[in-house]
Amino acid sequence: MAPAPARRGPGGQSNRPPRDDRGGPGRDDSPKSQFEERVVAINRVAKVVKGGRRFSFTALVVVGDGKGMVGVGYGKAKEVPAAIAKGVEEAKKHFFRVPMIASTIPHTVQGEEAAGVVLLKPASPGTGVIAGGPVRAVLECAGIHDVLSRSLGSSNPINVVHATVTALKSLNRPEEIAAKRGLPIEDVAPAAMLRARAAAGGA
Question: What pLDDT score was predicted for residue 136?
């Protein structure tokens, strides 16, 4: 049976109330998180039990605020979304602050974790993040926008991510190095770094 035609008012307009599609199924009205989340790798793993094999998923997630705070988490669950959610919560528990000069790192550093080896070098403004996928995820979530990197070891994303985290944790601020050596900061840091630091502070 065909639906009854809509009744129209004196002006030829329909009497039906206007339809509001703003709350449709494709719209997400939930508040956006202040953190940036990157899923680096998702793997399916199996556990052999008496009745056969039970499958589950693992997710390696990087979370950062884009302002120097970043963390890495590893989640495992029977479904992919649940594994990612667990990874995000684990990453937030392991936040650490990355020393930065403007939009780059203070000095060259190398991080090693398991078979992964990652070399990071500071770069001038406008260079961008010259890095592979796993390294790029960590650096961009931390808010580093100008850096050069090179992976010297394993290509396994888990090892590369943890090697990158180790390298970032090994960074020192110029003030810390000057205090350890008992010298003024002008004798420790290059002039270009001091100018970038002053420009970032004055911005």
Answer: 92
Mean pLDDT score, 42-64: 90
Please write the tens of the pLDDT for every residue from 8-38: 555 555 555 555 444 444 444 445 568 889 9
Q: Please state, as a whole number, how many other Cβ atoms lie within 10 Å of the Cβ of residue 203.
A: 6
Residue 202 has pLDDT above 50, yes or no: no
What pLDDT, on the 0 to 100 scale, is given for residue 119? Answer: 93
CB-based contacts of 57: which residues, under 8 Å, 6+ apart? 42, 43, 44, 45, 76, 77, 78, 79, 80, 83
DSSP string, 45-86: EEEEETTEEEEEEEEEEEEE-SSSEEEEEEEEESSHHHHHHH
Terminal-residue alpha carbon distance, the chain: 69
Cα–Cα distance, 148 to 169 (Å, whole number): 17
The residues with which 55 forms a beta bridge, in sequence order, are 46
Amino acid at 129: V
Handedness of CA 71, 77, 82, 84 (dihedral sign): positive
Residue given tokens 């070891």 in the structure block: 153
Q: Kindly tell me if the per-residue pLDDT of 72 is higher than 80.
A: yes
Contacts of 110 (CB under 8 A, 6+ apart): 117, 118, 119, 120, 152, 167, 170
